[in-house]
Amino acid sequence: MLMSPVEFFRQLPKKQCPECGQYIEEQAESYLTECERCLSKKVE
Fold first, then answer.
1. What is the rounded distance in angstroms from the CA atom of residue 18 to the CA atom of residue 44?
2. Number of independent structural domains in the chain
C-alpha cells in the first residue's frame, strides 16, 4: 500500500548543515544545504 504524501514528508529527517551539523529551519522554495552562519563565512 502506498504512503500518503503528507505522511511521507512528515517522516523525512530534518535538514542538517554538512559543515557544522546545525539543523536548518526549512523554508518553502529553499534549496540551501548549509546554514546561514556557514554561508556567511564563505562570503566574507
1. 19
2. 1
